[in-house]
Amino acid sequence: MTPEDLRKLPVSQMTVDEAEADLAALAKEIREHDRRYYQDDAPTVTDAEYDALRQRNAAIERRFPLSVRPDSPTGRVGAAPASGFKKIRHAKPMLSLGNVFDEDELQDFLDGIRRFLKELSDNPDIPLDMVAEPKIDGLSISLRYEHGRLVQAATRGDGAEGEDVTANAHTLADIPQTLPDGVPDVLEVRGEVYMSKTDFLALNDRQAERGEKTFANPRNAAAGSLRQLDAAITARRPLRFFAYAYGEVSAVDWATHGQFIERLKAWGFQVNPFTRVCDGIDHILAHYETIQAHRAELDYDIDGVVYKVDRLDWQERLGFVSRAPRWAVAHKFPAEKAETIVRDITIQVGRTGVLTPVAELEPVTVGGVVVSRATLHNADYIRALDIRVGDRVRIQRAGDVIPQVLDVVEDGFHDDRDVYVFPAACPVCGSHAVREEGEAATRCTGGLVCAAQAHERLKHFVSRDAFDIEGLGGKHVAAFFEAGLIKTPGDIFRLTPEMLDGREGWKDKSIENLMAAIAAKRRIDMPRFVHALGIRQVGQATARLLAKHYGSFAHLRDAMTDARVIGSEAMENLLSIDGIGKSMADDLIEFFAEPHNGEVLDDLLANVTVEDFAAPDTAGSPVAGKTVVFTGTLEAMSRGEAKAKAEALGAKVSGSVSKKTDIVVAGPGAGSKEKKARELGLQVLSEREWLDLVGS
Ligand code: IVH
């Protein structure tokens, strides 16, 4: 095939060899065009032709992710440097929300609240009012007013720290610059920046006319428009804002969320007109139906309904678990579905070696987003649905979740196609792929020799919720990995400007920025560090639990070594952490026992300082640092609330009594735990004595 014919071949019909040949040619051509444009000021193609080359390159890379070249032009220029914004630490974290998808899950959520607030479980007649409001599909920001003036605006970022978009926020008509007299001295109003559907379409038309970048959907358009280093560009973009929450406030003078919404209106904010206080699940569901019924005619995207406990005193008692409040939840609309053809089934190798089959699809629009790949989960899933290459399938996409294949649509030719055979070897390193008893996943046994795993681990290491090294995205890590510059995490901290000098896409300034970004991460907090290690099953929430429990990384590491002995105190101690079960404990212990991991860790720790876990400020708390066990029936509070309260005061709550336990709170009916505590001579308190101790 001539290079010209190759260029005309639809991406969906390419073989791997063809894809790689075209990617090589595209990289070279785009590089030459860049040189003519940037260095010679003498472009030889129109902007539209140039964009088409980049788009084709990106489309091929999406379909053949394993063929992405180290010198890929994707991500080189174009994207606004995220490093341009100052970081802002949120005075109160910006939380995310858990999801429910149907009535049963919603009922469970409400029951959970009733169980937590003991007076509600004791008295089913006390109403639990909830405010229901649409979940706006935009990006959340926090606006800080001091003495009634807008002084700061920050994006959500990772929830703890966002980007300073103050100058940009000043340009939005929906965001008041000043507030009426009488507002609290410090007032952080939070809500969603979004773009209307009409404005989005018009913006894309304008962008296309000028040969500029168009946006995939209104949310991307809103995010891209707000996060402009030049606020004058934001000012020209039609952004809007709905307010729905608050952060730090010097004096809260409202008792319910409903009252807060009224305040917002009085202060001049837009609040969503579909916001209602509902008394009970029937009312909640009726309002959900109303919102869903109006969804299509709304001029902005919504992806569900958010329910919030109306009473603030209850919200406060309920608090939150890891990143999501116990007092609010998002009821997502059902997933959107579409039909398309499976062009190929490829295998992705994850950082823990799991081989995930992926359906490469004829691109199709599902709920406004073009989908060309969907997960097939595992070998059993493909077998159960008997999915074959060439089949017509139904796919669905729910929110930000990876699209999945639902089933095969009969077209009369299914039987003529070959049954899919799951590979017996890792497509990347060739090692055997095995499936353990009782596991759904097939794993590559290549472990540390598998390039895909090493590479995915590094990508995870630098990702946003881990080391979050500005300017060092997955793509760069891939390129550096292939070039042999980075093999283990420690190598990142040994990168020098000389090593990057002359590399495609790196200029003096970007090298300098990267070096600064890396240097900034030589100190890191313990939860991030533990999460970055990519230990099987250990996500952000577990990493936090471990940090909280062990306090320092050295302590955690020692404990994991000691816990290798079955039945050891260290093992029991690990299992006493609420949220850590046997299988997770095994993965943790295995990780720290693996000699290579030990070497990688030593090397990394020679370059990075892991901060001890900063326990919440519990100075003056009589139970800070103490290990407490609750047993028997509690009368004043539910077990859940008692535990949450103790933790807020800096205590560790454990499920089992040992020598390490400091206090056992025993209610009526306490049995073996109380007995053991007395045998060990531990402090045993009644619930009343405990409440007196902690002052409530
Ligand atoms: S409340 C403590 N209300 O959804 C709860 N969030 O998945 C904080 N969102 O980051 C959020 N509409 O960007 C809340 N009416 C609404 C919302 C809403 C959209 C977004 C928000 C948040 C995300 C959580």
Please tell me about this protein's structure.
- 38% of the residues lie in helices and 21% in strands.
- Strand 17 and strand 18 (404-409) form a beta hairpin.
- Helix 2 (16-39) packs antiparallel against helix 3 (47-63), helix 14 (451-462) packs across helix 15 and helix 19 packs across helix 20.
- The longest helix has 24 residues, at 16-39.
- Residues 95-97, 133, 135-136, 140, 156, 192, 244-245, 306, 325, 328, 330 line the site of 2-(butylsulfanyl)adenosine.
The number of helices is 27
List the domain count as a whole number. Answer: 6
**Overall pLDDT score:** 90
Give the name of the CATH superfamily of the largest domain.
DNA ligase/mRNA capping enzyme
